[in-house]
Amino acid sequence: MIFNSFTFLLFFPVVTALYFLVPHKFRWLLLLIASCYFYMFFKAIYILILFFTIIIDYTAGIYLEKVSDPKKKKLLLILSLTANIGVLAVFKYFNFFNANLSGLLYWMGYTNPIPFLQILLPIGLSFHTFQAMSYTIEVYRGHQKAERHFGIYALYVMFYPQLVAGPIERPQNLLPQFKTEHHFNALDVSEGLKRMLIGFFKKVVVADRLSIYVKTVFNNYPEHGSATIVLASLFFAVQIYCDFSGYSDIAIGSARVIGFKLMENFKRPYFAKSINEFWSRWHISLSTWFKDYVYIPLGGNRVSKGRLYLNLFAVFMISGLWHGANWTFIVWGALHGFYLICGMATQKWRTATASKLGLGSGVFANFLNISFTIFLVTISWIFFRAVSLEQAWGLLKGVFIYKPGFFIGEPSYFLYDLMAIAALFFYEIKQEYGHHSLRFLHNENWGIRMASYLGLVFIILLFGVFDGGQFIYFQF
Amino acid sequence: MKQLKENSNKFFIRLLLMIVAFVAVDQAAGMFLYYFFTHQVSGEYAVANHVVYNLNEDVLVLGSSRASHHYNSSIIKDGLHLSCFNGGRDGEGLLYSTAIFELALQHHVPKVVVLDVTSDVLSEKEDEKNRLSILLPYLKQSDVIGNMIEKKDRLELLKSHLQTYRYNGQVVSIFQHYFLSSGNTVMGFNPLDNKMDVSRVSTHTSLKPYSDSISADNVNALDLFINECKRQKIQLFVFVSPRYNDDTQQNSYLKLKSTCNSNKVVFHDFTNDVYFKNPEYYSDRAHLNGRGADLYTDTIVAFMKKRLSPAANVQYFSKNQEPLREN
Fold first, then answer.
1. Residue B214: predicted pLDDT
2. Do the Cβ atoms of A416 and B173 come within 8 Å?
């Protein structure tokens, strides 16, 4: 089931109402059944994959706590992680590596005898696998007690609001919340609904509207001029942000309605003044996952400069691969690693030069830093959006080698795109710089608040795209 | 606990008030938008509105963008001495044409209908059903519209109870075409100005011959279309208008031909007509430009003249004295 479907608009109030009607001791069961139903809307049989990893990690968690021998503990952890990564390897990466092997063997004059798997990638596999892995790692480290209640552990992996596209939760935050009795709280409900409304706006009014223009240009890029490709790339930067942060908003909001508090996943990333800051604002639950479970175990900042750069590059390459089994994602990750390393290596020189030029701080310096960060990120998004390296290269040539012509498409749709971006910019700038004037959804006057809710609902109904399909991040 | 209960009561009262306000605003906005929608003076909906509400012409042309750009209503009018309106619409297929034809028949029965189709008209195409939402503003006109929209999604009719949803994605266009007359359609005909750049036209086709699957919905729509014409004694011409490069090796094409033949509907395919192989006549691979459209319309007028039934020909006879005979 996807959040921007009519089915979800029926599913959500029913589950929410039942949640508050059912006694606390049965609520885990209700949420688990609802989560199974939610997941099985995609491809029912794939729930077995989830159950496989749930059983493995649940058992591993209990034994990790029981066993005191560090070697045995480590072995248990490795077994659990291997099972999780094995599922990812089979369903997500097998065909990719096999295709590359085929290419290599062909180049050497051989034929690859290994057949390709005829399977679909389970929705949100990387998300719930990473969440499951964080549980066993935390139990291994002694930061989390093993969960004895199988149903509650299963719910930790399957909790429907964040099951298919995060935020990737940590057991310390989520598991205790299943055990706490949540009473109906008008504030939680209204805040949650507001958050969901903003998420729907970002997804159907901004992301899916922009996707029409982006798709038209990217799918036929040789026909388009440089200005068009630049605009489509910028539109894609906004599209992917609204698509993914919109999902997170709906996830966080729908959990909040029933009293759950999920971690924040985005903090207005396009206001970042550097790539380093960008990653502290973009997909926070994944960045912190990689920091806690890959970067720090590799030595973190307490290593030589060369090793630090190598670690950073490796983490971002893995992050790229996490997103998808395609060289375009690996290059996307590598680019970000490269940006970060360049940023760190030139930090002193850049600070000194900026000071000499009188651009050390202030509005103009911030503007330049933000613009340059957006430029770098947008270049990387071209690889993320392209279906092949060849297409990405063609698009980059389109950007940097001038070709005349500017495509608008359907004028009214183009106007919607601009209006949607303007509305988003207005909303985000208010949040970023904390202006409390012109408050709509959080106005103290109930009448203005109600008019704002209604206004937003009608904007979604009139300007949203309702057959825009799935969220981009579902494929990961 | 008492405080919690009070807060909850306040919340539900406000929620109820909001729902009431939502329904009221939705109904009012729906009526407001319906007025502007039905009074557009230009644009694709103005063409569709003419077919749905005001059609009084003898000849009606229906189909996709190829209908809209290929059939010059003035040439048909002058050539056949029958008034003509072109109701073709960009990006739309047989389901749309059938729906809009049903709406037109509620108040006017044309003598002749020209249905322009492509060789894949009966092939299964997911996006064709997705585009049926554009019929939502006509929902209350006929049950046929509801049946068509249900093909897109079972829940689409439920959503359409929201009046504003019916005008989703159209607000700017509605006001633009209400206040500003733009576009150059002449009795629905919308000629294209440019000439095709042959160097950019790919001659490659990735389609495997006869690999398409037939859409039962499209076959039913074609049957409904033909049966309505039979019932109302409308002479139907089904044409595949010229295309610079086309692949007719499709199951859809075979089914289309056999359905027309078995129903004795005049069917003619101009795809491989050598006269239209000149790239000068094209705007792009799939569309004739204005010059090509005029030549093509002259050709089909000559073709139709020879085949017009006496019922459709009544006006033609009176102006030309002598009834036409089929060669």
1. 87
2. no
Amino acid identity for residue B99 in this structure:
A
- Whole-number Cα distances in Å, B224 to A373, B89, B102, B154: 58, 20, 9, 21
Suggest the residue from A209, A458, A459, A460 to mutate for an interface test with chain B (most B CBs closer than 10 A). A458
Q: At which residue do the structure tokens 């989703």 appear?
A: B168
Q: Where in chain A are the domains? A: 6-181, 188-463
Q: Which amino acid is at A24?
A: H
Closest CA in chain A for residue B23 = A454
pLDDT(B326) > 60: no
Q: How many CB atoms lie within 10 A of CB A120?
A: 10
Q: What is the pLDDT of residues B25-40, one digit of tens each?
A: 999 999 999 999 999 9
Determine the Cα–Cα distance for residues A33 and A45; give it in Å rounded to an integer.
15
Predicted interface score ipTM higher than 0.95 = no
Burial of A62 (0-12, 13-18, 19+ CB in 10 A): middle
Percent of residues, chain B, with pLDDT higher than 70: 88
Query: Would you call B133 and A415 a contact, using CB atoms and an 8 Å cutoff?
Result: no
* Closest Cα in chain B, distance from residue A7 (Å): 8
Q: How many CB pairs under 8 A join A and B?
A: 62
Question: Are the beta carbons of B168 and A463 separated by less than 8 Å?
Answer: yes
- Judge: B8–A415 Cβ closer than 8 Å, yes or no: no
Full-model pTM: 0.84
Least CB–CB distance from B164: residue in A446, A462, A466: A462
- How close, in Å, is residue A82 to chain B by CA atoms? 40
Residue of B18, B29, B169 with shortest CB distance to A453? B18
A-interface mutation test, from B10, B11, B152, most A Cβ less than 10 A away = B11
Mutation target among A194, A206, A412, A459 for the B interface, most CBs of B within 10 A: A412
Dihedral over Cα of A245, A414, A226, A398: its sign: positive
pLDDT 10s digits, B206-226: 556 767 788 888 999 999 999
Q: Could you tell me which chain A residue has the CA closest to the CA of B6? A: A186
Please name the residues in contact with A32: beta carbons below 8 A apart, sequence gap of 6 or more. Answer: A151, A154, A155, A158
pLDDT at B322 over 50: no
CB contact under 8 A, A450 and B18: yes
Question: What does the pLDDT read at residue B317?
Answer: 41
Domain edges within chain B = 39-194+211-320
Residues of A belonging to the active site? 323
What does pLDDT average to in each consecutive run of 10 residues of chain A (476 residues)?
Answer: 85 95 94 94 88 94 92 93 93 89 90 85 88 95 94 95 90 94 91 94 93 91 90 96 95 96 95 94 95 92 90 94 91 96 91 83 88 96 93 92 86 89 90 74 85 93 76 57
Phi, psi of B114 (to 5 degrees): -110, 120
* Measured distance CA(B61)–CA(B64) in Å, rounded: 10
The whole-angstrom separation of Cα B34 and Cα A175 is: 51
- Quick one: pLDDT at residue A37? 94
Which of the four pLDDT bands, split at 50, 70 and 90, describes residue B318? very low
Contact A50, A132 (CB under 8 A): no
CB contact under 8 A, B162 and A446: no
Is CATH 3.40.50.1110 what the domain over B39-194+211-320 is classified as, yes or no? yes
pLDDT surpasses 80 at B170? yes
For chain A, state the CA radius of gyration.
23
Q: Looking at beta carbons, which residues of chain A come within 8 Å of B155?
A: 6-7
